[in-house]
Design goal:
This protein is α/β, with parallel strands linked by helices and about 450 residues long. It has nine helices and 20 strands. Strand 1 and strand 2 form a beta hairpin.
Length: about 450
């Protein structure tokens, strides 16, 4: 049973009423009977859990109360709309296939040339009518995670990518959010990357909020088949008024490779990135890189799980944060090694540069190991500018602010250099330069 506090949240009450109305009206009849049962079970789970509070271990550093005080419309606009490519999503020099979703809905248009053989893009609303694809959405497997269960109960649309070949040119997915009233938007995305296939996907998250609040509860599932390769880049530049909750689960098969690069910049009120990589077969490889620059009263929370289930797998994780003004950063990364996952190599590191006396960071790297033949390590650092480095630069005629900007760029370099798409790497570096203010306090 939900607590009184949770029941008193306007959004919670709106969701309960909205789901009951949808059920009574038959609005959830799209898809199979198994999907309808999955939706019902997911909603019952959410109703039992309620919205997470700081009493929940995974949310102890991120208090949602101030964001839940606003009222939201839970029935977002599901129509396909075409809008111009926002400047924030324009990456100079990038040659890519491009699709744009407005509030989670794709209008069917593709930029950058016709899609090649081996790359299929569809609306999830259409995939739910396809007996071959609907099965991916029928199994509820989100445990006690409130937001994925909520998404499963309510989602209407999103983007399906199916890759069956090695796609040489990147795919850019632009997520554009805009509304004329406070809204809750819940897109569901599915990527299926077949055996021996390969793809690079760049997600650009932008907004035009116009003094309203938009809460995005997104759910993405990535299936990486045997010997497949996925490079996944996320650039989050959405503006004030945005509250982004992103849950991404990656399921990897034998000898597959998954690389994730997540970059979060000042703007959104709240960003919570839940990234789970499940190494389900042996000899898989996973690399997770993250860089977050926070400012204002922004809250940016990165939660990762690397789940080593089988032997002889390798994972490497490096997240870095630059905390400015009165912002809050959270990093909680867990590496879980099952008893059967012998010969596991797993490394995790989180480094933070706090350049304002009012900014805070909570860092909690974790290892949970049940195998005895492994190589695993983790670490975390929190620091400020090196006085020696500042003195060295200033002694060579570099001004104090320019010297600090150089040190921030150098601090971020370990992450930015991992990006293998030159245009994106240059774009990221430009965003870093743009968001480094003269006065960091």
């Amino acid at each position: 049973m939900s607590t009184i506090q949770e029941q008193a949240i306007p959004l919670y009450e709106e969701l309960v009423n909205g789901y009951n109305q949808r059920t009574a009206s038959g609005a959830d009849e799209t898809g199979s009977g198994d999907l309808r049962r999955t939706r019902q079970a997911a909603f019952e789970k959410f109703r039992l859990l309620g919205f997470p509070t700081i009493r929940h271990e995974d949310w102890k550093y991120t208090n949602l109360n101030r964001f839940l005080k606003d009222e939201y419309s839970v029935e977002g606009d599901s129509s396909a709309r075409a809008v111009a490519l926002p400047a924030e999503a324009t990456i100079p020099g990038l040659d890519a296939y491009r699709v744009m979703l407005v509030n989670g809905v794709w209008d069917g248009k593709v930029g950058g040339g016709p899609l090649p053989r081996g790359l299929e893009v569809r609306r999830v609303a259409e995939a739910l009518l396809d007996p071959e694809m609907v099965g991916y959405f029928e199994s509820g497997k989100w445990g006690n995670h409130a937001f994925p269960n909520l998404n499963t109960a309510f989602f209407k649309d999103g983007l399906l990518l199916r890759v069956t070949a090695d796609i040489g040119k990147p795919v850019q997915i632009v997520h554009h959010y805009s509304a004329d009233r406070n809204s809750l938007i819940q897109p569901r995305h599915l990527w299926v990357v077949g055996q021996n296939a390969g793809v690079t996907v760049i997600e650009s998250v932008v907004s035009a909020t116009h003094d309203v609040k938009i809460w995005v509860n997104g759910l993405t599932e990535v299936i990486v088949d045997r010997d497949a390769r996925v490079n996944h880049l996320v650039v989050q530049t959405a503006g004030e008024g945005m509250r982004l909750i992103n849950h991404t689960t990656v399921r990897q098969k034998k000898q597959s490779l998954y690389n994730n690069y997540t970059f979060t910049f000042p703007g959104s009120d709240l960003v919570r990135n839940d990234l789970q990589a499940r190494l389900e077969e042996d000899h898989t490889e996973t690399h997770l890189y993250g860089l977050y620059l926070t400012a204002g009263q922004q809250v940016v929370d990165n939660h990762t799980l690397v789940d080593h289930q089988q032997p002889a797998c390798f994972s490497n994780e490096l997240y870095k944060g630059v905390l400015m003004e009165r912002s809050t950063g959270v990093f909680n990364g867990k590496v879980y090694v099952h008893q059967d996952a012998q010969k596991t190599n797993a490394f995790q590191q989180n480094n933070n540069l706090v350049i304002s006396k009012h900014a805070t960071i909570d860092s909690k790297p974790e290892l949970e190991i049940f195998a005895d033949d492994v190589k695993c390590s983790h670490g975390s650092t929190v620091g400020q500018f090196s006085e020696d480095a500042l003195f060295y630069l200033r002694a060579r005629g570099i001004g104090e602010e320019a010297a600090k900007a150089l040190l921030i760029a150098a601090f971020a370099f370990d992450v930015t250099q991992q990006v293998k798409v030159g245009a994106v790497e240059e774009f990221i570096n430009q965003l870093i330069d743009h968001h480094i203010p003269v006065n960091h306090g």
